[in-house]
Amino acid sequence: MPVQTRRRPSSPDQTEKPIRSGTVVGKSGRPGKRARRKDPLWARLALVMGAVLVVSSGVAIIGSKVVINQATSTIDQENLLGDAGKSDAEGGKDLEGPIDLLLLGVDVRGSWDPENVRADTIIVLHIPASHDQAYLISIPRDTEVQVPASKKSGYSGGTAKINSAFEIGAKNGAGWTGGAQLTAATIKNLTGIGFDGAAIIDFGGFRKVIDALGSVHLCVDQEVESYHMKLVDGKPMWNADAKKTGKPMKPVVHKKGCREMEGWEALDYSRQRYGLKNGDYDRQQHQQQLIKAMAKKAMDGGVMTNPLKLNDLVKSAGEAFVLDTGGTEIGDFVFTLRGVAANDMVMLRTNDGAFNSVKEGAEEREVLKPISLEMFKAVKDDKLAEFIAANPSVISTKK
C-alpha cells in the first residue's frame, strides 16, 4: 500500500488560473485552510523567505501575532509540493526533526503567462534536527533529470533540464502550483529529499523587498557587465526599454569590491551568469549571497523595530512570494522565530562550483558529481554537518 503524504490531499479536478501577482488560485478564489501545525519550530522555516520571513525575535517588540497576521495577509499560500511533501514514514509530522525547504526563483520579465516561466533558481534549504544552523544548496539550472509524468499538465514524463520542469508542470492550466509540484517531484526523485515547505519567489518583485530594506551589502568577486540592463541618462533600464528611448546607452558594470547596493543593482548582479568564470555556478553562489545579505539586513538593520519599515517589507513580500507553510499561519512562525541568525546560514556548492557538462544532442547539460549526490543523501539522512567536516570543499568561498 502506498504511503500517504501528510497534509496534502490531491485535487486533480481543481481548476487553477493565474492572477496578476503570479500566484495560482482555485475556483473559490483562495485555497482553503489546511490543518495547522502545532510545533512552533516550524517558525524556523522563515529563513527560506529571505528578506520577508527572516523576521526574527525583533518582531515581538512591535506587536502581537494578530498584527503580524494582518501585515502578512497579502502573502499567498498554496500547495506547492503535492506528493513531494514528506510522508509520515519520512517523519513528516515530526517537526522536532530536520526541516527541508524548496525555494524556487522565477523571472517573469513582465509576462504573467504561467505557461512560459522556468525556475532558473532552485535552492534546497536544510535545517538539521538541532535547529541551530541553516544550509543553502543550489541545484544547477541545466542539470539533466528525469521529469516524472504530470496528470495535471498532461505530461507523460521524460528527460529534460531541471529548470524546465516548472514550465512543463504549469501547462494546460496547471499554473504555478503545478509547476512547483512537478519541480518538487523531480527533485525528490533526483535526491530522495522530501520537503516540509516551499516558496516561489518572483525575482522581479525581489527588488521591492530589497528597496524596503533600504539596501543590502554585497561583495562582487568578479567584474561583470550586465546582460540584462543598460544605463540611460544615468538610470538603469531593461535593455528593451532602454532601446525604445532612442537615447545613448551605457553598460551597467558590476565592479569588484564590497558595497551597499540598491534593489535594482543587487538583483541585477545576482542574475548574471554570462561573462562569469563558472557561469551559472557563480550565479548560484551570488544568489545565495543575496538571500543571506537580505536576511542579515532584516535582522540587523532596524527593520524589525520599526513598524513602518516592517509594514513596507511585508507588503513588498506579498508581491514577490507564494508560500507553502503547511497551513500554519505566517504570523505564528514569524512571531516565534528565534535562535538562527543570518550568520548561521552556510552556503554550499554542487559540483565543486564548476562545470560538469555532457553533450545531449546540440545541448550541453550538467550532471551532478558523486560528491554532490552524497551531499544530498547527507541532507536526507540529516548528517550534513558530518559530511561537510569530511568534505570542506563543498563550502562556498564567496562572502
Notes on the structure:
This protein is of the alpha+beta class and 399 residues long. 30% of the residues lie in helices and 22% in strands. Mean pLDDT is 78; it is low at 1-64 and 335-339. It has twelve helices and 18 strands. It is globular, with a radius of gyration of 20 Å. It has a seven-stranded mixed sheet with strand order 3-15-9-4-5-6-16, sandwiched between helices. The protein has a three-stranded antiparallel sheet with strand order 12-11-13, sandwiched between helices. A two-stranded antiparallel sheet has the order 1-2. Helix 5 runs antiparallel to helix 9 (307-318), helix 7 runs antiparallel to helix 8 (279-300) and helix 11 (370-380) packs antiparallel against helix 12.
Topology, element by element:
Elements lengths: L16 E2 L5 E2 L33 H4 L2 H7 L4 E2 L21 E8 L12 E9 L6 E5 L5 E4 L10 E4 L2 H6 L5 H17 L5 E6 H11 L2 E5 L3 E9 L2 E4 H7 L4 E5 L2 E5 L1 H9 L7 H22 L6 H12 L2 E4 L5 H6 L9 E4 L8 E4 L2 E4 L3 H11 L3 H7 L9
Parallel strand pairs: 3-15, 4-9, 6-16
Antiparallel strand pairs: 1-2, 4-5, 5-6, 7-8, 9-15, 10-14, 11-12, 11-13, 17-18
Helix pairs in contact: 5-7, 5-9, 7-8, 11-12
- CATH homologous superfamily, by name? LCP protein
What is the domain total for the residues?
1
**CATH architecture label:** 3-Layer(aba) Sandwich
Widest β-sheet, arrangement of strands: 3-15-9-4-5-6-16
Structural class by sheet pairing and helices: alpha+beta
Q: Helix-strand pattern, N to C? A: EEHHEEEEEEHHEHEEEHEEHHHEHEEEHH
Assign a percent range to the helix content. 25-40%
Write the CATH fold name.
Aminopeptidase
Tally of extended strands?
A: 18
What radius of gyration results from the CA coordinates? 20 Å
Low-pLDDT runs = 1-64, 335-339
Biggest pleated-sheet summary = 7 strands, mixed
Anisotropy-based shape = globular
Mean pLDDT: 78
